[in-house]
Specification:
The structure is a single chain. Strands 1, 2, 3, 4, 5, 6, 7 and 8 form an eight-stranded mixed beta sheet that branches. The longest helix is centred in the C-terminal third of the chain and has 17 residues. The chain is 43% helix and 22% strand. It is globular. α10 runs antiparallel to α11. It is of the alpha/beta class.
Length: 268
Amino acid sequence: MDLATVKQRQQSAWASGDYAAVGARFPITAELLCEAVDLRAGERVLDVACGNGNAALAAARRFCQVTGIDYVPTLLDRARLRAAAEGLEVTFQEADAEALPFPDGSFDAVLSTCGAMFAPDQEQTARELLRVCRPGGRIGMVNWTPDSYVGALFRAIGGHVPPPPGVRPPVQWGSEERLRELFGPDVTITAPRRSFLWRFPSAEHHADFFATFYGPTNKALATLSADRAATLRTEMVETVKRFDVSDDSTLVLRMDYLEAVIGKPASA
């Protein structure tokens, strides 16, 4: 399968459900990333694959000049509503992480929270992030780790809806070694592992929530027969329980991720 077809299918998946309902429930990663990148008022900031705008809004709260891009128009609409509700100035536009419509060196900081990592051509995506970042600028990313709940969830989905051949798993972006392969030897990389706790009424509630709102699971369940969909949903519950750190009947889900800050050399 060619990458253009993969991208078209991914776009359809992320447009299904309502990712805005998911993203709105963990703005903490974007706020922490903005601190890790050490944003300063007035800096030009790009949020790539911005979804409903978590990182873009976090940067705008710090008085940066912010642009957010995504290839799902409905998510951009939700991001605009959030910005308007908070009185924040952000420019949102439809664009592809693999072909950013900006000149070289346009931004002081380029951010992506659990977004650019899903682009099918990882090498091209990394090249674009580097290209639009000015010399001496920073790229900040929140990427799910391979051993995280999200990594386990995608492996469960892959047992029923196999991923396209030749496309690397998105969670490879959650490995510092892979980041060094993607961004090359000239950058500096700081990439500590982080985690946050995601709270739900129960594991079953979480599975229902993801079945309804999270595009990849919503789309996968819709493509399966009733029996296989029921099996996948059972596996979703079992998977989430492996990452539950609660001591009561509610779900406290440990979400592990890599908080990466990639420094572009000033001479680039």
